[in-house]
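Q: Hi! First time asking for a complex rather than a single chain. Here are the components, and I think there are two in total. Is that enough to go on?
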Amino acid sequence: MEPKAADSTDVNPQPPSDGRLVALVLAGQRRSFDELIGRYQRQAVAVSYRLLGNSHDALEVTQDAFLKAYSSLHTLQKPEAFGGWLMRIVSNLSLNFRRGRKNRQQLPLDDCLGTGQGHENGAGGSEWMARSGDPVHRLESEEMGRRLQKALTELPEKQRLAIVMFTMEQMSQKQVAEALQCSVEAVKWHVFQGRKKLKELMKEYF
Amino acid sequence: MNLEELEFSISQYLDGTLPPLERAALEGRLANDSQAQRILAEQRKLNELLASADPLPSINWENLSRHISRSVDLAEAPAITRHRIGGGRIVMGIAAAACVLIVATVTTVLLKPAPSINTSNSDTTAAHVQGIASVAVLTGEQPRGTPITHIRVGPAPRIASGTVWHHSDVVVSRPAQVFIAKGQIISQDTPSFPF
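A: Yes, that's all I need. Here is the structure of the assembled complex.
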């Protein structure tokens, strides 16, 4: 009798670490990068979206960031820090997005957005908090979303990134520190200073 | 603790990153200090505002990952990891190879047997002298008359018979003139070793 091939699948192995996946990609296993895409695409889109306030741009930046990460993966010093490194690429690309258009050919991303989503409400507008069914609440939410987006753009870069990544995206302080290339203590300080400024900028809500 | 330090402590307290000792101290203060309570309430509200901002529109994550994956397929592959040899090692390797080559060449030249000297002429005395291709001395012509003095060319008799010193009786070159100076006869034809 032949042994069951399915026996080996009964064991539920731990998913490979980021470092392991990076090593596999560098060894030529291209498909391992797809697993990294699956792990970090949501975080990348969220960070980019909160920095740009535009879903189309955020998707483009995310795609660009993964391409950049793939082509320069061999330069990653600490493979285990892939997440923080990727977020650094995402934030840099997002901040530079409006400064210059990219030369790279992009694949259309329209089918990635759900129906009724992805259209911006005016130049520099935001989709934030615009999901409520109640029209009054919806308007208030939209207004608050716009104010928050505007206030965020007025923060110094490191404070903005620290607030977006740590407070809003719930990334670990270590990961944020890797993304910002600073210490964990510095992340705490940037978050604190960012909150202080946000509170001043949105004082009518307090 | 000044106001900013208090605010910073409360910020970390809300994030759960305040060290345990400081946390206990802050909780003690929050129980009685209205200013600390107000700061805590404001920061909580701001955090709620930020947390409630769910900005992500509806995204088809499967499609997105497929798109990105396809883009990556079209992109250049990452550089293959290579084990680099340091510049110093390369130079040292080349130097070692050059040394081996030099030693091999010198050894080959030194161990190569000296070419044999042609002795086909019966009137010719030949000798093996390393480094000289051929030496020939004519012995047929003899001086005439009575010699005034006898001059021996070659090593001293004691050295010539020994086994330690090696010499050659072959005249390599003949000078045009020979000056004979007055002096004592010594057992050796040179006053001292030239080396």
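A: Residues 1-9, 116-132 of chain A have pLDDT under 50 and may be disordered. Let me know if you'd like any chain examined more closely.
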